[in-house]
Amino acid sequence: MRKLTAAAAAALLTLPFLPSPGAAATPAGGPPMGWSSRSLGCSVSDASVRRAAAGLAALAPLGYRLVLLDDCWLAPQRVDGALAPDPARFPGGIKALADHLHGLGLRLGLSLSAGTKACSGGGPGSYRNESADAELVRSWGVDHVKYDWCNIPAADFPGQNVQQIAQTLYPRMRQALGDSVAFAMNNEDGSTVPWLWAKDSGAVTWRTNVYNRPLPDAYSSMVDVWETNQLRVQYAGPGNWADPDLIQAGRGGMTEAEYRTQFTLWAVGAAPLVLQADPAAAPKTVVANPKVIAVDQDSLGAPARLVRSDGWYHVLVKPLDGGDQAVVLFNESNRATTVAHRLPAGRYRAEELWSGQVATTTGELSAHVPAHGAVMYRVGPSREQAPPLLTVETDPPAFLGDDRPGMLEPGKEREIVTRVVNSGATARVRDLRVTLAVPDGWKAEARTPATRSRLDAGETFTVTWALTPPAGTEPRAYDLTTTAAFTGGTATGTAVVAVAQGPGPGRTYLSDLSWTSAKNYFGPVERDTSNGDKAAGDGRPLTIEGVRYAKGLGAHAPADIEFYTGGRCRSVEFTAGIDDEVGAAGSAGFEVWADGARVAYSGVLTGAQPGKKVTASVSGARFVRLVATNGGDNATSDHADFADAAITCD
Q1: Has UniProt tagged this entry with the keyword Signal (predicted)?
Q2: For residue 134, what are the contacts with CB-CB under 8 A and spacing of at least 6?
């Protein structure tokens, strides 16, 4: 995955906090919390919304009360000039649905469009019908309107740009709705730059990302949206919340740890917590933590400020009502690492809100944060006796910025270390005992003492372990957890290690090996066939200028295919070229990387050229990557073949 650039990180760190003209002096409440029907699409119905509402009602005591009916609820045409619900999907009407939700203690939200048509589903927009539509939805008992920006008749506004048109249409509906209905500005592609003026329009929320599509259920997309949101939150404040889009927890595209990270980042950013998954399927361990929700709903209403970032590792601080702070340590990278933040001199109570562990510190706030993970502390002046904060590291990286998880091979022993640091430094730790939890069947043996009678302020205790996954262990990621038990408490630190099988001795075709990662512009990388089209397994025989190859890798540049080699291999060779399936079109450059160094480059090859032999020395490298660049133009037709790709190892 990509690292946040230094320039972007610097921009985030230097953003000022701005006053909130137009915002209420006292917020009516925190950011909206609830559920959206977006995942149902045009299969939405009265029955499906009621089922979801029943699940949401169980979460209502935590603040989840908004049921947001997204597109496809409208009939295709107005009835006697008025909006109407689709009679097949909502035969009982919207008022009956609103009454039912109100009986459950919930609120109803509807999507409307500022243009001539709804964004999807074919229903009418509210353009030039704002007053009538607002009066109608009020009569139905609607509590919240999400006003979309679709099908805008720009020709009716000659000489005006998109922002100027929005500054006419959004306030028109806001005023028509009146104060009894919350109003959300939903301009997904950011073309109206709502963060610059939404406060004065009376919007409760306004979208901050620059995607013209809903947020995908994927970690990298979520992080991209968070970074964009962080550039906008300087304009947010009580009653006017920056909205980076829906909470994805429960949809299945991310791990639970990644969902917890999204929830953490949204909560510390004072963002709406609106679920996209069925509320009954959303993991309660993620979405039902009352202390994390309290940070999001804090009455001060201030979004977090990014106080430190180097591109991979981020520290965010959110001031809270009463003088406490929420501090988030976020590790964007692919390997667990320690992230730290220095508080002003003093003695502090630090409660990690996901684990519930309470510790004290004299100013150093640090944690060994799992890959793609985030920890959230609530920090305030120390009011109780609690153990000092311990930083517990499991298989820490050898150098800052090492983004790969630790690697092991089935049946082979490897040494790792664990470290315990008395980073809180408020007291001496006594009778320290360190244990390492590994998957069933693995062997972990302490090679150095795992106990220590005391650990003074600032001291570090390191244990070396011999770790062996059994022969036949499935190549994938596994959790290792270190527990530091001591008089008066425990602390833990978790890391992910990966098991991979390195090549055997002799010459092996790379298409017969498992890769550790593969990125491809269009469709998956194919084994022993060309890239083909988008679907997996649709490739054709590898062919370069009429020459067929039985073995190899078919990619579409830009592509990046990584193999674990364990430092035992000597050379890589292949024939590089553009596959004949695209004719004379396409161009790509072919590279070999050994750890962090490029060791071979083909130059740019086109579809009109024959294959070119590429040989590279990879002696001592732990990882080897085959990379195809797009040839310096675009990615069209760049079907890049690594024909007869093979590696020779000792």
Answers
A1: yes
A2: 145, 173, 176, 177, 178, 181
Which residue has tokens 């002696």?
Answer: 619
317 within 8 A of 325, measured Cβ to Cβ: yes
Cα separation, 49 vs 84, in Å, equals 17
Q: In 241-399, at which residue ranges do the beta strands (DSSP E only) sit?
A: 241-243, 273-275, 305-309, 313-319, 325-331, 337-342, 348-352, 358-361, 364-369, 374-381, 391-394
Q: 489-499 and 477-486: which strand pairing?
A: antiparallel
End-to-end CA distance of the chain: 31
Q: 3: pLDDT confidence band, cut at 50, 70 and 90?
A: low
Asked whether the beta carbons of 379 and 344 are under 8 A apart, the reply is no
| DSSP notation for 102-115 | HHTT-EEEEEEESS
Kindly report whether the peptide bond that precedes residue 16 is cis, defined as omega within 30 degrees of 0: no
Q: Which of 287, 323, 288 is nearest to 302 (CA)?
A: 323
Side by side, which strands form the sheet with 348-352? 305-309, 313-319, 325-331, 374-381, 348-352, 358-361
Domains of the chain plus CATH, in order, are 33-297 (3.20.20.70), 391-501 (2.60.40.10), 506-649 (2.60.120.1060)
**Rounded Cα gap, residues 454 and 131, in angstroms:** 73
Consecutive H or E run containing 56: helix 46-57
3-state secondary structure of 174: helix
**Biggest CA pair distance of the chain:** 83
CA gap 19, 545 in Å, rounded: 64
The backbone torsions φ and ψ at residue 67, rounded to the nearest 5 degrees and listed phi first, read -105, 110
Distance CA 456, CA 131 (A): 70
Q: CB-based burial of residue 293 (10 Å sphere; 0-12 exposed, 13-18 middle, 19+ buried)?
A: buried
Q: Are 417 and 394 in contact (CB under 8 A)?
A: no
The string of pLDDT tens digits covering residues 305-346 is 999 998 899 999 999 999 999 999 999 999 999 999 999 999
Mean pLDDT of the 525-539 span: 95
| Positive/negative CA dihedral, 615, 616, 618, 624 | negative
Give 160's DSSP letter. Answer: -
Task: Return d(Cα 293, Cα 31) in angstroms, integer.
Answer: 10
Q: CB–CB of 426/388 below 8 Å?
A: yes
CA of residue 614 relative to chain centroid, distance: 37
Cis ω for the linkage preceding 238 (within 30 of 0):
no
pLDDT tens-digit map of 386-398: 999 999 999 999 8
Radius of gyration over alpha carbons of the chain, in Å? Answer: 28
Structure-block tokens of residue 98: 């609103």
pTM: 0.89
